[in-house]
Amino acid sequence: MNVRAKPKEQAARPRPTRSVTLAEALAEAIVAGELVPGERLDEVSVARRFGVSRTPVREALRQLAAIELVDHQPHRGAVVAGIAEARVAELFEALAETEAACARLAGRKLSASDRERLELLHQECRSAMMAGDHDAIPVANRRWHEALYTGARNDILAEQAMSLRRRLAPFTRAQFGLALRPSDSAAEHEQVMQAIRLGNEDGAAATMRAHIASVARAWEAWAAEHAVRLSPSPEDMRASLRTM
Known about the structure:
two-stranded antiparallel sheet, 10 helices, about 5% strand, about 240 residues, mainly alpha
């Protein structure tokens, strides 16, 4: 009797470290405008506020500096960096093109086991989104996207996509706060999956590009709804000075 083997259960993912959890909390406060540009992030004060030692604080600030939410300035230490609207737009544009390429290659290269895992993660992500589970949504969403990177079988593209997604993580998490965004995102994921199921490489790329563009618009809507103050780009600042 030919019995189809059940997919192996995924190993339990390690819990995030204190520094990662702290970095996420600080990033959310920066994106929401609770920590304003130029505000000093004193290690002792931050450690006291979150009930941790200075070691995870130092690592969290390093992580935030890597995604351009924190600056290290002489004689001041870590300070909140301004969020430049043009810079965020460029990051989303780069992510859209990179993920579109990953989706196209995944549509061509996915192995049977990769396809099965992608479908499983798609269903887990959809369930979290439809349930409105705001703790589970970012994790499930990231895992689905990362499975697509793996399925593309191109380490260079995967590394670029991972790097861009890390830098945009605070903004992609924030946009899920819009009431209709989780269900919209679930529908967009399904469009990508449908193209992949049909072996439509161009369709997979186009629907993924449209999905990331939708994420960017949702972030802009969330920022407007929460009156997030975005910093002008250096070019905008120079232009305004020329008109003075």
